Structures are given as structure tokens and as C-alpha cells.
Amino acid sequence: MAGNSFHGNMLTGNMDFLQWTCHDVARWIESLGFPQYKACFTDNLITGRRLIYVNCIYLPRLGVTDFKDMQVISAHVRELLGIRETLWSRSIADPLRDSMGLFLEKKSRTGEQADSFIYEEFLDGMRQ
User: Fold this and answer.
1) Are the C-beta atoms of residues 63 and 34 closer than 8 Å to each other?
2) DSSP E strands, the chain
């Protein structure tokens, strides 16, 4: 993590969190005030790339079942990833997707193609 601040990563366009190990993610969860959940993230091998999938639907599977904690952690994950909150008024079957969320789903995969893929390329592809 090289001493980077956990908070406000996306404000500078910094995607260092994609390189985080599950232990880096656990330290981040602890820095948010949830040391009791560190093992939930390390035991389930939640790396920085996998944070895109961490939301209120997925957190109970990791062992985070307190609803208030789920809301706070989900909000911090969205903030870290630079994702705007999905509008609750939309159908759950067809959630509004913002471009950063879609981009990060592609980046969450491993491999040379995902590693070299940049946000500008993704936006160009969406415009076509």
C-alpha cells in the first residue's frame, strides 16, 4: 500500500486499491472502525479487485450481518471505488449502472488484458 491514504482514493483518480491484497483490505476495514470484520475479509480472500462485489447483498455471506454496519461499509466501498449510489426507486432487477461501476467490474477480473485496461478506453468503447 506504500503509505497511501485509504480515504479519497478515487478523488485523484488513484486506483491503487486494485493492487490491494486481502490483508490490505482488512486493514482498510479496520481503519473504518470495524476491526471485528477483518477476518471476514481475509478468510474470504477479498482483495482490492473483489471490492466491486462487496455490497449489502454480499456482505452477509462474508459474515457481516449487522444492517447498520453493512450500510456504512457499502457506502465506504462505493466511495473508494468512485461509484454513485444506485437509485432505490428503480427495479432491483434492472439497477442503474454508472460507468465507473461497469469499468471496475471489468477490472476486477485478473489477467493481462484487465491489468492494461484503462478507464478512458472503457468510456470510448461505451460511446461507440
Assistant:
1) no
2) none
